[in-house]
Amino acid sequence: MKIAIVGAGVVGVTTAFELALDGHAVTVFEQRSATAEEASFATGGLLAPGVLDPWSAPGAASPPSVLGRHAAMRVGRSISLAELSWLRRWRRAAHASARSGTPLPSLVALERLARYSHARLQHLAESLDLAFEHSPGTLLLLRTPRDAEALAPALKALRDAGTAVRELDTEMARAIEPGLSPSLTLAGALHVPNGLAGNCRQFALLLRQAAQQRGAQFEFNTRVARLSGSPTGVQLEGASAPHPFDAVVLCAGVQSAALLRPLGLRLPLVALYGSSVSAPLREELHAPLAAVVDVQTRTTMARLGQRVRVSGGAELGRNTEKAHPQTLNTLYRVLGECFPGGVTHSSGVQVWRGVRPMLPDGPPAVGATSVPGLWLNLGHGASGWSLACGSARALADQIAGKAPDIDLEGLGAQRF
Fold first, then answer.
1. Among the CATH numbers 3.30.230.10, 3.30.300.20, 3.90.660.10, 3.30.9.10, which is that of 48-104+133-197+270-358?
2. Torsion-angle region of 138 (φ positive above 0: left; ψ -120 to 50: alpha; else: beta)
3. Which listed residue, 1, 24, 119, 384, has the most CB atoms within 10 A of its CB?
4. Cis peptide before 231 (omega within 30 of 0)
5. pLDDT per position as a tens digit, 322-335
6. Contact 298, 54 (CB under 8 A)
């Protein structure tokens, strides 16, 4: 089949590779000048388990506060009615999960896809010899006993799936991460030995090359102005008519909602912005060895080669290029509290603010639409890096008319 893919972030690239691997003629259209220039550029790095990302889904952590100086989510003055509706649905689901202490079906579906995706990524990395920066293991810092309570639904989803989660005292936590500050007060920690952190953009660039070797074509600096349902195709900006394709896969992040609307398809997709700071190592013995999540502040610290990346924050309805000053203050503060002296701030520091294209229940939309020939692989939110390989393989199987190796219940766009 002749297939168009809209978007060349990590989701678009993995989709292109899987479809090219199946023998399809694939063309990827990307409005930026390179792969992974937007939401996939400087992600937090936490790859597995995906549901341990504090913003992966409602119920993955305690419901976020939106008021006060230290609010977990910052709501801008320009918030729209659609964004406000999304926020209400997210918080309502998070509160329901917190009251019951059990994972929501959406969180279970997310964890199932994340496990499948992790296995697929490992297979691709080994079979294609993709040498990207990564570090094994995930440690969750519990500053108070309440931090563990906030994680209860996500931990139950992991344990029900057979994922090993070890409860540690502070001495054991420091043995795993010896760079932790001796003055940092902890009530304990949780360790996931099979966790993983990795460089998302580096992986995407390597996999793009593998896709091109299998015939996939990438058209950069090319914006898709609209989608065509009859006949199936894409109309590029400045073109007078659509380019016909047998199928179109939409992987365009937050821009996807506007492209779907003229076809009568509406998704509650919003832009939830997060930030990261990447700094060069100063002293390896004082820096994290792998991925460390500070549950209380919803902040992730990850070792990526010779750098440490600290990420967090959530901003809704604040459409500026710069991160909120208090978000950045939190990132710097938490890194200093946990790993003082581990990085240098004098040079080589990269500050990034990127979008998480999120649906209100957490999981992405993967599969066919009511428009013939149009497929979706979008809305991965904070879990794009964790879910990309699995959702791409599952979608390629669907397009081929095969049953995917994973149950996709709860992942279709029809749930909205």
1. 3.30.9.10
2. beta
3. 384
4. yes
5. 888 889 999 999 99
6. yes
In the CATH scheme, what is the code of domain 2-40+202-267+361-415? 3.50.50.60
Going by C-alpha positions, the residue among 295, 275, 325, 76 that lies closest to residue 188 is 295
- b/e sequence 181-219, b meaning 16+ C-beta within 10 Å: eeebebebbbbbeebbbbbbbbbbbbbbebbbebebebe
Question: What CA–CA distances, in Å, run from 345 to 91, 285, 306, 334, 342?
Answer: 36, 17, 14, 14, 10
pLDDT band at 6 (very low <50, low <70, confident <90, very high): very high
Calculate the alpha carbon distances from 34 to 24, 207, 345, 385 in Å: 22, 13, 28, 17
Beta bridge partner(s), residue 364: none
Q: What is the pLDDT of residues 344-384, one digit of tens each?
A: 988 899 999 999 999 999 999 999 999 999 999 999 998 99
- Do residues 364 and 267 touch, judged by C-beta distance below 8 A? no
Query: Alpha-carbon distance 242 to 236, whole Å?
Result: 7
Per-residue pLDDT, 131 = 94
pLDDT digits (tens, 9 = 90+) for 253-309: 999 999 999 999 999 999 999 999 999 999 888 999 999 999 999 999 999 999 999
Q: Under DSSP, is residue 331 helix (H, G, I), strand (E, B) or coil? A: helix
Q: How far apart are CA 262 and CA 395, in angstroms?
A: 23
Tokens 């992942």 label which residue?
411
**What is the token pair recorded at 177?**
């991460």
How far from chain centre, in Å, is Cα 309? 15
Of 31-35, 97-101, 186-190, 377-381, the range with the lowest mean pLDDT is 97-101
Residue for token pair 């799936």: 161
Q: What number of residues does the chain have?
A: 416
Sequence ranges of the domains in the chain: 2-40+202-267+361-415, 48-104+133-197+270-358
Output the CA torsion sign for 5, 10, 11, 15.
positive
Question: Dihedrals φ, ψ of 344, to 5°?
Answer: -105, 140
